[in-house]
Amino acid sequence: MPEVVFSIVIPTRGRPESLQRCLQAIARLGYARERFEVVVVFDGEPAEAPRGLEQHLQIRSLTQAHTGPAAARNTGAAIACGKYLAFIDDDCEPAANWLTELERALDATTECAVGGCVISALPGDPYATASQMLVDYLCAYFNSDAGACFLTSNNLAAPRRVFLEVGGFDRSFPLAAAEDRELCLRWRRSGRPLVYRESAVVHHYHAMNLRGFLRQHYGYGRGARHLRRVIAKSDARGIPMEPLHFYWGILSYPWRSSARPFSRLRLSALLALTQASTVAGFLREGLA
């Protein structure tokens, strides 16, 4: 039988419609079906993977106690059969060449972790657009041709053996916030490279209202504070604060992007709200 090259791991909780769309997109991948499997991990809610795709995909599913997406990814990785792990979230849909592009990058650099490009699939949603714009800015700021420092967990691949050796995601992160940053730091400190592959694309369907938008970035602030706490235990130097021009760059990013002129001021205001919410979450977690 052909080797299983990729195990696609999807953590999920309470979003059956999104999971269905994600799996349907995976079934359309331009990659030999026998060379990848899908592992769906239900985080605390016993359920079955959507039916009707068995003839198109090799799907396995399991349920863990509710401990968050970081732990769910580790649970999936533990039972995966593939040479490589590919992580994607249930509200994302990969482009047809996603696995092909990830494989090229993984094969080209020994023991690397590879992150791809995430594109908001909801251009008419200002909150989804602003959130994705923040991620775009971070990727541009921290990643270069010389190497990457920031990869997101909804479009991330790595050799399974190395992922397990490094220790996987830190299970102490209960939210979808900063667990990918912590893994990236630990991966690089182990002497292994990170690679950003812009051509490995997933489309992100994350509709939000103002309340959800603020809650998301409040959670990012909590994750950022927890990240500093975790890093301080292993490295007395901790994580240095970014310079002021980093934050100015966030607010001015819409004016340097392809955003339509009439929407740039609005996007800048929303990006300012992301930073205010992040600070609030950071302070709250510091008092916890």
N- to C-terminal separation?
A: 52 Å
Percentage of helical residues? Answer: 40-55%
Radius of gyration equals 18 Å
Fraction of residues in β-strands: 15-25%
* Overall pLDDT score: 93
Task: Quickly describe the structure.
The chain has 9 helices and 8 strands.
Could you explain the architecture of this structure?
This protein has helices spanning 16-27, 69-79, 98-108, 126-142, 160-166, 179-189, 210-234, 244-256, 261-287, and strands at 6-12, 36-43, 59-64, 84-88, 92-94, 113-120, 155-159, 194-204. It is α/β, with parallel strands linked by helices. It has a single domain (6-207), classed as Spore Coat Polysaccharide Biosynthesis Protein SpsA, Chain A (Alpha-Beta Complex), CATH 3.90.550. Strands 3-2-1-4-7-6-8-5 form an eight-stranded mixed sheet, with helices on both faces. α4 (126-142) packs across α8 and α4 packs across α9. The longest helix has 27 residues, at 261-287. The model has no long low-confidence stretch (mean pLDDT 93).
Tell me the layout of helices and strands.
Elements: E1 6-12, H1 16-27, E2 36-43, E3 59-64, H2 69-79, E4 84-88, E5 92-94, H3 98-108, E6 113-120, H4 126-142, E7 155-159, H5 160-166, H6 179-189, E8 194-204, H7 210-234, H8 244-256, H9 261-287
Q: Which tags fit this structure?
A:
288 residues; alpha/beta; Spore Coat Polysaccharide Biosynthesis Protein SpsA, Chain A; 8-stranded mixed sheet; 47% helix; globular
